[in-house]
Design brief:
This is ACT domain-containing protein ACR. Binds amino acids. The structure is a single chain. The chain is built from eight helices and 14 strands. By secondary structure, the chain is an alpha+beta fold. It folds into two domains: 184 residues, Alpha-Beta Plaits, CATH 3.30.70.260; 84 residues, 2-Layer Sandwich (Alpha-Beta Plaits). Strands 1, 2, 3, 4, 9, 10, 11, 12 and 13 form a nine-stranded antiparallel β-sheet that branches.
Length: 374
Amino acid sequence: MDVFNVIDCDGKKIRDKEVIDYIQQRLETDASFAPSLRSSVGVMPTEEHTSIEFTGTDRPGLFSEVCAVLADLHCNVVNAEIWTHNDRAAAVVHVTDHSTGCAIKDPKRLSTIKELLFNVLRGYDDFRKAKTSLSPPGIMNRERRLHQIMFDDRDYERVEKAVGRVEDKSSRPQVTVLNIEKDYTVITMRSKDRPKLLFDIVCTLTDMQYVVFHGMVNTGRTEAYQEFYIRHVDGLPISSEAERERVIQCLEAAIERRASEGLELELCTEDRVGLLSDITRIFRENSLSIKRAEISTIGGKVKDTFYVTDVTGNPVDPKIIDSIRRQIGHTKLQVKHNTILAPKPPKETTTGFFLGNFFKARTFQTFKLIRSYS
């Protein structure tokens, strides 16, 4: 039995019956569980759009170069999600032909798109090969797919930060893996709370072939505490130090991939061919680095969200942002939030985690997952 106490994105109780019915319908149907596509990265046309997936070494201006190539190839980006983590970049991009507004299906044209994108992603002295190839058909949530792509790309392996980058190690998630019972491994996690945190962690545990048997999640005003009793699909708990270290690395990556880093900019305007290429070019010319982005187009209007830093990963000069907003339009590009400069919450002291004794139940909104097997 799984019990979830949930709220909407504004922190309020969900009362809309249509939303409740939709959640129930999705949970009760097998359609919400798509087959795994872990081993594939590439280009796949559907009736409405062509889906492009890629990974490569992150660098300033990378997404701008990708958008410029797509614009030159007469591809219009209608939806996209871009993540960067540990100097790796991954994206799922949906494009249409700018003249027809439909998916691109010509094999020769698809081959050209893959080849040119590969040349951009390959970069200079890339020690890990970029990936662009055909994907098999299937239905999958973009965020779910991004977790699989980055996991396959081994983004959880730590790399040294560039000179000049200020890294706040205190903001790193805390992950503990212990075998306190012979039948289970207990994983405890403490991190800054954010939307979809539980989703990200469960996706990674699933990709690593672990099954959750018992769990509890509590969220406070700023922090989340999570604990899971897990076993591998073969029925065994974690049995080696190397496996334990790998689980810690992968869960840290799962928490960090979607963590909002930098200044949040929101673009709202009428869609047009080449818009995203022009916007990202302006960012690149002003030495901004895109750390994460969500691109969406509905009814001819775009609503794009970018998380940006300077090229060294540090906060952007406000004068540069003012200059960019003048070029694009103050009403079109809004500054939403600066996560780098946001005040740090007071440190909460917690020395141990284990089901009931590390949660501060009276001061936290509770989000429980309890699974029992006879």
